[in-house]
Design brief:
Layout: H1 2-26, H2 30-41, H3 44-65, H4 71-84, E1 91-95, H5 102-109, H6 122-129, E2 135-143, E3 147-154, E4 159-163, E5 166-170, E6 176-178, E7 190-192, H7 196-207, H8 211-216, E8 217-223, E9 227-232, E10 237-239, H9 245-259, E11 266-270, E12 278-281, H10 289-292
Parallel strand pairs: 1-3, 4-7, 7-8, 10-11
Antiparallel strand pairs: 2-3, 4-5, 5-6, 8-9, 9-10, 11-12
Helix pairs in contact: 3-4, 5-6
Length: about 300
């Protein structure tokens, strides 16, 4: 009996010892608790990277096994997994936009918050953005897990182009950027005629070197798509020679400095001949019949 009790006591002690050991093993240490919390706080994007990596490897394997297979299906699968793994558009940042309508930019991007970011193509979006008149160049980035970054370089308004009765804003290269709200861009040079849009900036740069001439110039008029006239504010036309605008402007500025030429009551200043300057004066008004009578002006 005693032996039995002793054996039973030893068994109970052993059983108690094993249970205590299990309880000690089941009790999480501080390190385990910390690790569990870290795992609980892990971003879905991190898990998504592992998932997408596995699917990407699978897609590559399928491609090697069947090069003519359904690669597009694999891409769509990756996009779907990206959406479920937290890879969706949350923010669209647009930088450098001043004159470009925002709705045109967003339409060209072709993506909205909530859409899967993996299926978004920055290259295709960039190509669409650069078809917008105001956009000179565009840079598009996809920043995982959920940001689309767009940087625009816009065309700078240079002049107002009048052609065939229509007015447009152009940049230095002659690109039409808009035909609306022309007064929103402040005073701009006026260029007139077919072909004036692409050639005006070169003449404008020459004209800037002669302040007094530039100040009196109202418009740069392209004639026959080969040469220029300057239309002054007082109505005088200055006819410049084809391809010799720089020396002609030098002579014109010098004559004005000496003789106040541009302020005279003239119709035109013809500089098309290299060795002379022809001045066309306003016609003297003919006297009225009363003025023609002898002694009409006598008291």
């Amino acid at each position: 009996m005693a032996r039995s009790l002793a054996a039973g006591g030893r068994a109970n002690a052993l059983s108690s010892g094993r249970g205590g050991a299990r309880r000690e093993q089941d009790r999480p240490s501080r390190l385990r608790l910390w690790l569990r919390r870290r795992r609980g706080l892990a971003k879905p994007a991190a898990l998504g990277l592992l998932t997408l990596g596995a699917v990407g490897a699978l897609g590559f394997t399928l491609y090697l096994a069947d090069p003519a297979g359904r690669v597009q299906a694999v891409v769509e699968t990756i996009a779907d997994l990206g959406e479920t793994a937290g890879f969706e558009v949350r923010d669209i940042r647009i930088e450098g936009r001043s004159n470009t309508p925002e709705e045109l930019v967003r339409a060209a991007l072709g993506i909205r918050p909530g859409d899967p970011i993996i299926s978004f193509s920055p290259t295709e979006a960039r190509a669409r953005l650069q078809t917008i008149a105001w956009v000179e160049s565009a840079h598009v980035e996809r920043r995982l897990p959920g940001t689309i970054l767009v940087r625009l370089t816009e065309r700078a308004p240079f002049a107002i182009w009048q052609n065939a009765g229509r007015f447009s804003i152009i940049d230095r290269e002659g690109k039409v950027v808009t035909s609306e709200t022309l007064d929103a861009f402040g005073p701009l040079p006026l260029v007139v005629g077919a072909g004036a849009n692409t050639e005006a900036f070169a003449l404008y740069e020459l004209l800037r070197a002669h302040v007094e001439v530039a100040r009196r110039t109202q418009a740069l008029v392209r004639v026959g798509e080969r040469r220029w006239n300057l239309r002054l504010h007082n109505g005088v036309d200055v006819l410049l020679p084809e391809g010799q605008e720089a020396p002609a402007l030098n002579r014109l500025a010098e004559m004005h400095q000496r003789h106040a030429l541009l302020d005279r009551p003239l119709i035109a200043i013809d500089m098309r001949l290299p060795d002379r300057m022809v001045l066309r004066q306003q016609p003297t008004p003919e006297p009225s019949p009363q003025q023609r009578r002898p002694g009409a002006n006598r008291g």
